[in-house]
Amino acid sequence: MSEPINEHSSVSASPVSTPQDFTPQDFTPQDFTPQDFTPQDLSASAQHGEASDPVSNAVTSSADSVPATADSVSATEPEMTSGPSATEDSSEGGTTGETGAAEKKDRPRDAWEPVRARMRSKGTVQARVVKWQRNGLEMEIEGEIVEGHASLRAFMPNDQIDRDPNRNVANYFGKTLPVKITNIKAAPSGAAVPEITVSHRAVLEEEIRLAGKEAIKQYNVGDVIDAKVKSFSHDNVNLDLGLGIDAVIRMQDLSWKPVSHPYEILKRGETVQAKILSLDRGRRQMRLGIKQLTTDPELERYSEYASGQTHTAKVVSINNFGAEVELPNGLIAFLPLSEISWQRIGSVADALTIADEFEVKVLTVTPENKRITVSRKQLVEDPLRAIENTFRVGTDHAGTIKEVTRGGLVVTLEHGAEAFIPRRELSHDRIERLEDVFKAGKPLEGLRVIEYDRGHRGESRTQPRITMSLIAAEREAQRTTLRDYRATSKASRYSLSDSLAALRDKLAKQEQEAE
Questions:
Q1: What are phi and psi of 130, to 5 degrees?
Q2: CA separation for the pair 122, 103 (Å, rounded)
Q3: 489 vs 495: CA distance, rounded Å
Q4: What three-state secondary structure class fits 338?
């Protein structure tokens, strides 16, 4: 390997040996192959102090020698190679954003973007009416919104012309109107201009909305204003105050009399006076009332009634909670279920029927709520109170046997009360069969009340528990005789047996006189 190096030593000293004198056109990878230049040649050159650069070795070689390999050249002189370099391969992923930006820049520009921008900003443009169609007006937008188009054709539907449903379209022919672009559709096949929809109504409503925001500040609750009837619903009346202020009158605020539908009182397009009942300035809404302009005529009729009065009433309706009754002057009063009778009743229908007439007592009168409460049972005495006052413990009464049981007798008393006489309170003597001595329907005298119980919560208040005795009066008489005898025994010659015998004779005589 030393001989080739010595032969070409003179060539390496020539000016031609520097790599800067070569250009990519003079030296290309196609001029050599890897077989023409081996690693052994590089190592031999390095031992003699020559440059190991493949390009320098190629220059210092003879004319018939082959240049360095393509791999060696690309590793030392990347700017001279025509193929892709390692630097480009390593940064391939980083050039995606630059490529996307370049594609976006090269994308064709949307010529109608100014029109879309005007629609998004809700800006106003001037358009002239050029033609009438059955479902709207054909418009011509003035001004060069799009480059190269001095005017654009657009369409305005009938409901977007103005806010008046009874409009005369002929009044708009040839006029220029401020409009807003509301929709843009892609151009149909064969057309160069997209379909543009505009609205003059949107401009009017925007002006009204701004004006109404200021106009509603001058109204207050309680003011009386004029309003125009715009439309009806089943239970409301919609009115137009102008300036974007919405007003409504509810059914119950139309008249003091019952109304089935608003058109019975008002007509569409009519201007009426109404009173402001509530106000919402933020939403530009208010609720009005017509009947509030006058005094309720029923208030004067309510003044005819006062608590404690008695009147004749007629049942007009029945529900689960009571009955509605008509008073003499036509007002309707309420009769609660609890005020119908002192007795417990299952339902109102069990005690009352439609068209029944009876006396009632006025309990409460509230004109502001239009409510009168009456009572039927307050006109009769509470039977429980009458029973309680009559059958006090220790009082004697008469009764009739209702039923004979093994434990005693059930007797009926006055005021519809019932009492029970235990077996031990019937006689001093033992009675084997009560049926042999007492019969149903037989009257009894000298019944004394020995116990009275009103009953506990939850029990029927019409059934107090009364316990009576048939021998309590005789027992009390014996006690009185004994007490008298003890008081006079020292001065009297009669014994206790004589006193009891005299008492029995007295009682027997009273029985004979009663018969």
A1: -115, -20
A2: 31
A3: 8
A4: helix
- pLDDT at res. 495: 65
Which residues have C-beta within 8 Å of that of residue 186, sequence separation ≥ 6?
Answer: 194, 195
- Helices and strands, number each (H, E), in the chain: 14, 20
Residue 260: partners with Cβ closer than 8 Å, 6 or more residues away: none
Over its C-alpha atoms, the chain yields an Rg (Å, rounded) of 60
Q: C-alpha 268: how far from its chain's center?
A: 32
Closest Cα partner for 226 from 160, 274, 165, 266? 274
- Which residues of the chain fall below pLDDT 70? 1-111, 144, 146-150, 187, 189-192, 455-462, 485-486, 488-496, 499-500, 515
Q: What is the pLDDT of residue 493?
A: 59
The Cα 17–Cα 26 span in angstroms is 14
CA distance 222 to 55: 104
DSSP string, 226-241: EEEEEEE-SSEEEEE-
pLDDT computed for residue 191 by the predictor: 62
Angle at 110 between CA 107 and CA 112, to 5 degrees: 180
Alpha helices in 344-433 (DSSP H): 383-390
pLDDT in the model for residue 61: 40
Instruction: Return the closest-CA partner of residue 315 out of 298, 332, 338.
Output: 332
Q: What angle do CA 47, 53, 54 make, to 5 degrees?
A: 105
Distance between CA atoms of residues 459 and 455, nearest Å: 6
**Cα–Cα distance between 363 and 308 in angstroms, integer?**
6
Calculate helix-pair angle for 496-514, 472-488, nearest 10 degrees.
140
Q: Would you state the structure tokens that stand for residue 235, as one six-digit string?
A: 């239970």
Nearest to 376, CA basis, from 351, 403, 349: 351
| Residues 6 or more apart whose Cβ sits within 8 Å of residue 192 | none
For 321-392, strand residue ranges (E) read 322-326, 332-336, 357-366, 371-375
What does the pLDDT look like over 17-40, one tens digit per residue?
A: 444 444 445 544 445 444 454 444
Instruction: Sort 410 into a burial class: Cβ within 10 Å, 0-12 / 13-18 / 19+.
Output: middle
pLDDT of residue 382: 79
Q: Which residue has the tokens 């300035």?
A: 281
Residue 247 to residue 315: CA distance in whole angstroms: 41
The helix/strand/coil state of 347 is coil
Report the sign of the C-alpha dihedral through residues 420, 424, 428, 433, in that order.
positive
Give yes or no for a contact between 244 and 212, defined as CB atoms under 8 angstroms apart: yes
Q: Which residues pair with 322 in a beta bridge?
A: 319, 336
Number of neighbouring beta carbons within 10 Å of residue 213: 15
